[in-house]
Amino acid sequence: MLILHQLGHAHSFECFQDGKLVGGLYGVVVGRLFCGESMFSTVSNASKAAFVTMVKFLGKQGCLLDCQLQTPHVKALGARLIGREQFQQEVFIRTRQTPLKGAWTAELEEFLARQEGTAPASPSNSMGEETSTRPHHAP
Q: Residue 124's closest CA among 43, 69, 32, 9?
């Protein structure tokens, strides 16, 4: 996965609380198709906060998100099941579109800054504690 990250294909969205990593998710992008691979959290709803940020950011970039499973949470965010034939067509189209290459740190920070006027910049977890999300950028 590290090589894919270094090549600009693997990305993570992370959630921090008091400077400590408390949740996030990662996936692989090919063209404008993002395939989510795994989520984790050590604080309730931290991975969901990262997921919401990812959905908003990648949606604005025109990406199709493959969530793998339709859970009540992703359904509430607008996910919908599509048939196999439509999915294959979307994969064919999206993987041939201009990719979002490299680290997304600057693009996501700019996106989050624009969102500050319409949505909280720091989502809260289920305990009402402030959290923040940001993309991972390896040195």
A: 43
Q: Identify whether 134 is part of a domain.
A: no
Query: Which residues contact residue 10 at a Cβ distance below 8 angstroms, ignoring those fewer than 6 apart?
Result: 1, 2, 4, 26, 27, 28, 29
- pLDDT tens column, 98-114: 887 667 776 777 777 77
| Interatomic CA distance for residues 50 and 125, integer angstroms | 11
Task: Give the predicted TM-score (pTM) of the model.
Answer: 0.73
Are residues 62 and 93 in contact, defined by beta-carbon separation less than 8 angstroms?
Answer: no
Any domain includes 135: no
CA quadruple 103, 106, 107, 112: dihedral sign: positive
